[in-house]
TrEMBL record:
Gene3D superfamilies recorded: TonB-dependent receptor, beta-barrel domain, TonB-dependent receptor, plug domain
Domain TonB-dependent receptor-like beta-barrel: 367-942
Topology class, membrane: Multi-pass membrane protein
Signal peptide: 1-30
Main location: membrane
Keywords recorded for this protein, A-Z: Cell outer membrane, Membrane, Receptor, Signal, TonB box, Transmembrane, Transmembrane beta strand, Transport
KW Thylakoid (keyword) present: no
Name the record gives this protein: TonB-dependent receptor
GO cellular component labels: cell outer membrane
Domain TonB-dependent receptor plug, first and last residues per copy: 53-165
Recorded family membership: Belongs to the TonB-dependent receptor family.
Gene, per the UniProt record: btuB
């Protein structure tokens, strides 16, 4: 038995909890703590420093104590358990074969990570190229608390704050030293996670500082090590065996046709027979018809289910009191992150016709020495098993520096505070990948060649005398070993392919891919807040300020990728920058106080004006653009009719400005299945879509016979990139609800908030078919020459490629209710109990169909590549007595459904695949030792519930990352020592 398995067995009594449990306290938590002091503080969602921490908007608070009770070692996992999180942000759980670079992102309300603003101490953090924050760059060891504003806040914070704001507050007044270590693993003994950190702080009469060093590591989990993800679709092979018999089906036919022994279109799809005797060389008799039920390649087991990653973080913050009323402060953070991805071996999809892109116009010569067919092969597939899996690795360096001055002063009885700050955030993202193919070399290696008896060597070229130096024929007919030990055609009997020659083949066609990208943000800000004048109910307060930022972004793909000679999808470089200058103002006016039905009545308003400019390269052309100058306002009201009840309301405008990547992102290659609206039928004798005949004829696309143009392939090469003409996305948000703490039930706090968001001018990437239809004026569109410029056709009218840039066309609206309840009970000698419930219920989620001019059906309760839950719940029970604490957490998700594909449980008789009600339990047990230590152990998903199965809209792994990983519980132990 392995040590890690022993650990699993040894600690099955323990811990973990969704961090969202603390979110149920919402404003009530802040009410218990900050409001008891007389210090003025800046709370999340407002620029006005105030004593009362309650605002007109709902803020969920995750304290450091709550985090320590979860056993979680990264910010993403903590936030992903807040019920307003939709679970769709990127993570290191890889549920698709292409995976990610190891970044971790948070998405709220189903609006996407790019519409959730992430701050650290109220300031913007380092972003990736797309403007989102990688949460893995923020170490848990330096967090004091996390505030989650569940409302739009662009009038306060500017761009991106549409779905909400995550504000991570760091430790500042820490004194002493603290060391922490943790270790965890899955029930199956894999996917280990370990972390260690040390934090040292000191404070003097005028100065204070804190330094923290932390390291975390996560090991991989292979998709093949979990039954649910062991083939492209769940139980695919079993499904077809039930239909055709076990002897007829040995693999999932929905695997890859780029298979181990190749697929060659020679009068029909043929493959080399794995059982053939190749001792006499490669002959036609050694081939047979390709059979998808036995020959398709199962690529799933090669991929990661959980990516390996390592993170080292250095954090330091300091404060120095320059005078009694002026303080200088600084914060610096450096993160080094390594992560890896593993993808199945390169699928070669070559066609002389260029069906999969111009770089894949590679044919196999009849004179290629291993060709058993003796004819030129113009369309063929191959799986580069001998080269090995594709292994992109990522080496990221993230740096953040903030410098500032803050102070306060009084004029008469009026209090004022101010701050000036400068910041620089820099991300350098380097990548290196092995297992990729140099397509120019591959073209040489499958072209004409032979065996030269005089030199006893294989060569590429028309003759040995004119051979291509360094090239050796690449035996795509040789299976997983490239024909090691098989007879060479044209050589004397017994002259077989050697191990050295196989290695030469691999070395010649493969290469190491290298790319680099980066994003740098520099900014300055200033803020003044204070009291304006006395109203009957108190002082009217204000805040005014400015912010300016410049974001520089570049992306330089690997030279062969951008040159079109790599097996990786073609991608163009990116270079651009955006600049913004913003001015904002906020006021809070207390109107009534301590009168009948108005213990407190306060109104609030804020406005922000933003002026954007941008410049960058569109292809090789330098251009300047005006992304817009949005003005956003918000209004709020807080009313306490009685001491026990607070009613709150807010409404406002939010926006998201396009990033440099949105504007100037180079095109990336894909091959979707698309039907040219002007195509002829397969025989070319009549219009395949006669309704389009008039529009296509008017566009000059009637084809040689007047019946439409020829479309050679179902898949059309598509380049997806940026659009320099993009404008901001806009959103209208509204939230209203109440906080109720009845005096007749001591210890009870209730919060209920209804929210709505309506977004328009959203960025969307039109499909290639949509672009072509808009160009010629089919499918109800008016002909638009702007879109025709994005369709590349040859002289006969056939489509070569379509460029599908982003555009501001989409709309989306959603609404729901958040419910929070907390009850604290002092049970005397039985200890103290705390019961909490955090619930998010989604009422509606709809996108707008721009073609029909109507709203699509609500997506609530459906699965279309990401779950749209009707509700998510996190319920916790805390018990503490003396030095012991136990927390039990139950996380639940509502049933969602998708249309059936292969797998279908059809629980409700509707002909749909249902996830079913999903509930898992976490347990946390901790002990505060007398030597100033805290020891805890626990489990997430204590009873090892498996995630539900989805097959129609997931690719390769048959479950969604919003759920727990398959494979049972995750067990862990932690130790933290104070000095």
């Amino acid at each position: 038995m392995s040590n890690v398995t022993k650990l699993s067995d040894a600690i099955k009594f323990a811990l973990f909890v969704g961090a969202a449990s603390s979110a149920a306290t919402v404003s009530a938590v802040a009410q218990e703590s900050d409001a008891k002091t007389l210090d003025r503080v800046e709370v999340t969602g407002s620029r006005i420093k105030r004593v009362d921490a309650e605002t007109t908007q709902p803020v969920a608070v995750v304290t450091r104590a709550d985090i320590e009770k979860t056993g979680l070692t990264n910010v993403f996992d903590i936030l992903n358990n807040i019920t307003s999180s939709d679970g769709s942000g990127l993570s290191t759980t890889t549920t698709q074969t292409n995976g990610s670079d190891g970044s971790q992102q948070i998405s709220l309300r189903g609006l996407g990570a790019d519409r959730t603003l992430v701050l650290v101490d109220g300031k913007r953090w380092v972003t990736d190229l797309d403007g989102t924050v990688d949460l893995s760059t923020i170490p848990v060891a330096i967090i004091e608390r996390i505030d989650v504003l569940k409302d739009g806040a662009s009038a306060i914070y500017g761009s991106d704050a549409i779905a909400g704001v995550v504000n991570i507050i760091t430790r500042k007044n820490f004194e002493g030293a603290q060391v922490g270590v943790s270790y965890g693993q899955t029930e199956k003994g894999d996917g280990a996670q370990r972390s260690a950190d040390i934090t040292i702080g000191a404070a003097g009469e005028r100065a204070s500082g804190v330094v923290s060093i932390s390291y975390s590591e996560q090991k991989e989990i292979m998709a093949g090590d979990r039954y649910i993800s062991s083939e492209p679709y769940y139980e695919c092979t079993k499904y077809f065996q039930a239909i055709y018999g076990a002897s007829a089906v040995t693999t999932c036919p929905y695997g890859s046709g780029s298979n181990v022994w190749g697929r060659f279109n020679v009068g029909g799809n043929k493959t080399v027979d794995p059982n053939a005797n190749l001792s006499d060389g490669y002959q036609l008799a050694d081939t047979r018809a390709y059979n998808g039920f036995t020959d398709a390649y199962n690529y799933s087991p090669v991929n990661y289910l959980q990516q390996p990653a390592q993170r080292l973080n250095l954090f330091a913050a300091g404060r120095f009191q320059v005078t009694d009323n002026i303080t200088a402060y600084t914060r610096v953070n450096y993160t080094k992150r390594y992560s890896n991805q593993q993808l199945a071996e390169v699928p070669v999809t070559a066609s002389v016709a260029g069906a999969n892109g111009p770089q894949w116009k590679i044919g196999i010569s009849s004179a290629m020495p291993f060709n058993p067919f003796g004819v030129d092969i113009n369309t063929w597939n191959h799986r580069s098993i001998a080269v090995g899996p594709r292994n992109p690795s990522y080496d990221y360096d993230i740096f953040s520096l903030q410098l500032g001055l803050e102070g306060s002063f009084e004029i008469g009885e009026r209090f004022f505070s101010w701050d000036l700050a400068a910041m620089r955030n820099d991300g350098q993202y380097d990548s290196k990948g092995t297992g990729y193919l140099n397509l120019q070399n591959l073209k040489n290696a499958v072209g004409a060649g032979g065996y030269d008896a005089g030199s006893n060597s294989l060569y590429c070229g028309a003759s040995y005398a004119t051979r291509i130096q360094g090239c050796i024929p690449y035996n795509v007919f040789g299976g997983p070993t490239l024909g090691l030990g098989t007879q060479i055609n044209g050589a004397a009997p017994g002259r077989t392919v050697t191990a050295a020659e196989v290695q030469q083949m691999i070395n010649y066609v493969s290469y190491t891919q290298v790319g680099t990208s980066g994003n740098t943000t520099t900014g300055y800000s200033g803020n003044l807040s204070g009291d304006l004048f006395e109203l009957p109910a108190g002082m009217m307060s204000f805040a005014v300020g400015f912010e300016t930022r410049r974001d520089n972004t570049f992306d330089q793909p690997d030279a062969l990728v951008s040159g079109g000679f790599s097996s990786d999808n073609y991608s163009e470089p990116t270079k651009g920058e955006t600049k913004v200058t913003e001015y904002f103002a906020e006021i809070t006016a207390p109107l009534l106080k301590d009168v009948f039905l108005a213990k407190e009545l306060e109104v609030r308003a804020a406005v922000r004006q933003s002026d954007y400019s941008a410049q960058g390269f569109v292809g090789s052309t330098f251009t300047t653009n005006d992304p817009g100058s949005p003005t956003n306002a918000m209004y709020g009201l807080k009313w306490k009719p009685v001491d026990d009840l607070m009613v709150r309301f807010s409404m406002g405008e939010s926006f998201r400005a396009p990033s440099a990547l949105d504007l100037y992102g180079g095109g990336g290659e894909s091959f979707p299945q698309v039907a040219d609206p002007c195509r002829s039928n397969v025989a070319g004798t009549a219009w395949n879509t006669p309704a389009n005949a008039a529009a296509c004829t008017a566009a000059g696309l009637s084809g040689p016979g007047g019946v439409g143009v020829f479309q050679a392939n179902a898949q059309i090469r598509t380049l997806v990139g940026g659009d320099a003409n993009l404008k901001p996305e806009y959103g209208d948000t509204m939230t209203y609800g109440f906080v109720y703490s009845p005096r007749f039930i001591e210890g009870l706090d209730l919060t209920v908030d209804y929210w709505e968001v309506d977004m328009f001018d959203l960025q969307t990437t039109l499909s290639a078919g949509n672009v072509m239809a808009r160009c010629v004026g089919t499918s109800g569109f008016t002909p638009d020459a702007t879109f025709c410029a994005n369709v590349d056709r040859d002289a006969a009218g056939s489509v070569n490629s379509v460029r599908t840039a982003r555009t501001n066309l989409a709309r989306y609206r959603a609404s729901g209710i958040d419910l929070g309840a907390v009850y604290r009970w002092d049970a005397g000698e039985w200890g103290n109990f705390r019961f909490a419930l955090d619930t998010s219920w989604m009422e509606n989620a709809q996108s707008f169909n721009s073609t029909s001019g109507t709203w699509n059906s609500s997506e609530v309760g459906t699965y279309t590549g990401a779950p749209t839950f009707e509700y998510r719940n996190v319920a916790t029970i805390d018990w503490s007595k003396g030095d012991f604490n136990v927390r039990w957490t139950t996380r639940t998700m509502s049933n969602i459904y998708e249309s059936c594909f292969l797998y279908c449980n059809d629980y409700d008789g509707s002909g749909r695949n249902n996830s079913g009600f999903y509930a898992v339990h976490d347990l946390n047990v901790s002990w505060n030792a007398p030597w100033d230590a805290r020891i805890s152990a626990g489990a997430r998903n204590l009873f090892g519930k498996e995630p539900p199965i989805f097959t129609n809209n997931t690719f390769a792994h048959s479950f969604d990352a919003a759920y727990d990983l398959p494979g049972g519980a995750y067990w862990y132990m932690q130790y933290r020592q104070d000095f």
